Amino acid sequence: MSEIQEKTSPPLSNRSSTSADTLLEDFAALRKAIFLDGLITIASRIRGVGCTVDVENPFYGSFNLIYAVTFLDGVKWAARIPLHGVKESFHDSDAKALKSQALTMRFIKQNTSIPVPDVIHFDTTFDNALGAPFLLITWLEGIPIYSAWRKTSSFDDHTILDERREKMLRSVGKVMAQLRFLSAPKLGELDFEPTNDTNEKLRVKDFQYMHSLHLEEHSEDVMFSDIGPFDHTRDFLSALEKDSIPDRPLDDFARGQRELLKIMIDSIPVVEHEKFVLVHPDFDSQNFLVNEEGTVTGVLDWDGVSTYPRYIGYSRYPGWLTRDWDPLIYNYGENRIPDGKEEDSPETLRKLRKMYFSIMQEELGEDEAKWTINSHLFEAIEIAARNPMNSSSIITLLLSVALGKGDLAEEKINILKEKFREALACTTHIIE
C-alpha cells in the first residue's frame, strides 16, 4: 500500500481554521479546470507505453490533488497538481517553488540513498495538455508510519510493539542523517542554475513556507507568504512572528503573549557564520513509508523543501515524537476528542525522544547530535511563531521550562531571559 492510497481525504489538521467545505470547493474548482485526457497523453508520450488515469477517484493531499497513473505493463506513477494550480491563483513565486521542489528532490536522489520518488517530469506553466502546473513522480510502495506505529502481530505484546518502533526510528534516523552533507549559508528554498558542464549549481533564494489559513485574518485564496532569505535563526523566527500578527487589534493578554514569544526568540543562541541544512518540510508519520520489517521505503511530500535552522533541521525529532509540545493538537488525556487519533502518552513520548536522541548520537556523533537533544523546544517556538492559534498553550509549556512552578509576576524580566537562554543552549542535558 502506498502513502497516497492512505490519503483519501484532505488532512485538515494543518489548517484548523479553514472549513472542510472550503477545501473541497478549492479541490472541485481545480478538478474542473484540468484536462485529464491530457495527462494520459503526457504520461504515455514520456514513457512510450499506454496508460490510464482513475478520473473519478483522485487522492487529496494537504495542498495537492493527486492522480494515480497506471501503465499497461503495471508501472505506476503519481501526478501531483498544486491545489492553487489555477490561473488566477498561481503566481511566479509558486512556479519557482514547484521548480525548486522538483530539482531539490532530484538533488537528494543523486547525492544520497534517501528513498525519495524519482521526478519523471514537471511543468510550472499552464501551457501543457493538462492545463495546469504538475509534477510526475514514481509511485512508492510501503505503509505510512502512522499506520504501522501501532500494528503488531500480537495486539497485547508491548515488547513486539517497542521493538517495531525502535526499528522504524532507527531507519528514519539513518535516512535523515544523510542530509548532514547538504548545507548552505542562508535559509531558503534552493535554486539550481545550469552550468556549461550540465551540472547544477546550488544556491539559496527566498524561503517560501506553507501558510496556515485563518479565515478571520486572510482571504480564502491566500495560501503562501514570501519571506526571507535569512542569515540567522532569530531573524527567521522573528519574521514568522511578525507575519502571523492578525489584522484585528490584540487584547492585553494576546499582546503579553507576543512579548513573551519575542523574548523566547531573542534567547536563542547566536551562532557565528550560521549554516542552514536541508530538512523534510513536513517531518511527520504520514510522509514516511516502511515495509513489514520497519525499514523506510519512501519519503514523500517535499512541498516547500528548503534549508532550515540546524536547531530544527534534519537532526530534529520526528513530528510524531513531539506531539505533547503542541497541546492544541495533542489529543490525549482529559482534552481527548472522542474517536480522535490515538496518541502516545507524555511518558511514552519522552522515552521515545531519548531513544531517538541515542540513535542520532550513533549516526551523527556527539557533536552533531547536540542539535537533536532539545530540538522539540525550538520546534515549539517555531510553531508558536507561525500559528497564533497554537501559541498560547505552547508559551505556557515553555514558561514552565524556564520558570518551573514559580510565580511569573515575582520574576524579574532579566531572570526570565536568562532562564530561556539556559533552556535553549545546546547542552548534554535533555529537557523532557
From TrEMBL:
SUPFAM superfamilies: Protein kinase-like (PK-like) (SSF56112)
Coiled coil: none
Keywords per UniProt: Kinase, Transferase
GO molecular-function terms, A-Z: kinase activity
InterPro entries on file: AGP_Transferase, Aminoglycoside_PTrfase, Kinase-like_dom_sf
A Pfam family that the UniProt record links to this protein: APH
Keyword Metal-binding: no
Domain Aminoglycoside phosphotransferase stretches: 94-310
PANTHER family to which the protein is assigned, alphabetical: AMINOGLYCOSIDE PHOSPHOTRANSFERASE DOMAIN-CONTAINING PROTEIN, AMINOGLYCOSIDE PHOSPHOTRANSFERASE-RELATED-RELATED
Name of this protein: Kinase-like domain-containing protein
The species this protein was found in: Gymnopilus junonius (Spectacular rustgill mushroom)
Record lineage: Eukaryota, Fungi, Dikarya, Basidiomycota, Agaricomycotina
